[in-house]
Design a protein that fits this description.
The protein has 10 helices and 12 strands. It has helices at residues 16-26, 44-50, 63-69, 75-80, 98-107, 123-134, 189-197, 212-219, 228-242, 249-261, and strands spanning 2-8, 31-37, 55-58, 72-73, 85-89, 92-96, 115-119, 138-143, 157-160, 171-174, 201-204, 223-225. It has a 6-stranded mixed beta sheet with strand order 2-1-3-5-6-4, sandwiched between helices. It binds NADPH dihydro-nicotinamide-adenine-dinucleotide phosphate (NDP). NADPH dihydro-nicotinamide-adenine-dinucleotide phosphate is lined by residues 60, 99, 120-125, 143-145, 148, 175-178, 180, 184, 186, 205-207, 227, 230-231, 234. The site of NADPH dihydro-nicotinamide-adenine-dinucleotide phosphate has 26 residues, from helix 6 and helix 9.
Length: 262
């Protein structure tokens, strides 16, 4: 039997064990997926090995440790600056970033995107900005504080709220946690409104509720999507990586999608 786990702090709320265990069962795989509360990210690899895991997912706040402590990092994870998937192969731990792959798969129905504004400058924003740029999209970043955009400003046009001159984009992404547990917009309405009015598609990484950002975008007739498909597809791609890409992703997707309908 193979064993997989999710590491994070907190982990109790995560839907990942349900997604993975459902697909493992439906695909007839002899494996289980559990969760591990990990306080100290520097212990990630020693825990992975002591639990004799075959693979793992990593969530907040340990995704950077996952990249930095792995034996081998995939180019996508290196570029994103974080990893959410670990796989044991020939006694080496490989790190991947399937959040970015899940995001690209989730926005695929929007069609050709040439310009994007990422709102936020945390770990998720950074990963999405790099994957979009690697796919030929011209990316700008807008963030509340100046501190977090400093590291990104070498590679992107970055603005804090007071420096930003609103304009339109093909795609606007909320990658902040504003709206996750409150009714706060991810930027002041006088900034957001002209951006939304001049843009075509809106995506919110938050998946479990209608955020003020998506509500505003919907009111102005943008094509909108929340983060549910991103979450779904990062899990689909992670499970396939656990099995050396030998599984049928359409079957995994079908099985995991049913969890969202429960
Ligand atoms: P971080 O803590 O790394 O970054 C948070 C960002 O949000 C910062 O840029 C911060 O700005 C900004 N922010 C927080 N509160 C506000 C606010 N009230 N107004 C404006 N900006 C705010 O978080 P992560 O990047 O790890 O996660 C961000 C979101 O992405 C979370 O909601 C998480 O659940 C979601 N997520 C979804 C996934 C999916 O599969 N759908 C996968 C991964 C994450 P500042 O610098 O000013 O503090």
């Amino acid at each position: 039997m193979q064993t997989f786990a999710l590491f994070g702090d907190p982990v109790a709320h995560s839907i990942s064990p349900r997604l993975h265990n459902k697909a493992l069962r439906d695909l007839g795989l002899d494996a289980l997926y559990t969760r591990v509360l990990l306080k100290d990210g520097s212990e990630l690899m020693s825990k992975f090995r002591s639990l004799k895991l075959d693979g793992a997912n990593v969530t907040v706040p340990h995704k950077e440790h996952a990249l930095n402590l792995a034996d081998v990092a995939s180019p996508t994870a290196t570029c994103a600056g974080s990893a959410n998937t670990l796989v044991l192969k020939n006694d080496k731990i490989y790190a991947y970033n399937t959040d970015t792959l899940g995001f690209m798969r989730a926005i695929a129905p929007f069609g050709d995107i040439k310009t994007a504004l990422i709102i936020g400058a945390g770990g998720t924003a950074k990963a999405l900005a790099y994957v979009l740029q690697n796919n030929g999209v011209e990316v700008e970043i807008l963030n509340r504080s100046k501190e977090r955009i400093q590291n990104l400003s070498q590679n992107f046009n970055c603005f804090s709220w007071d420096e930003f001159r609103p304009k339109g984009y093909d795609l606007v992404v909320n990658s902040t946690s504003a709206g996750l547990k409150d009714d706060i917009l991810c930027a002041p309405v006088e900034i957001l409104l002209p951006v939304i009015k001049g843009s075509n598609f809106a995506f919110d990484v938050i998946y479990n509720r209608a955020t003020p950002f998506l509500n505003l975008a919907q009111q102005h007739n943008l094509t909108c999507k929340n983060g549910a498909d991103m979450l779904l597809f990062q899990a689909v791609f992670a499970l396939n990586l656990f099995y050396d890409s030998s599984l049928d992703e359409t079957k995994i997707e079908k099985s995991m999608r049913e969890v969202f309908r429960l």
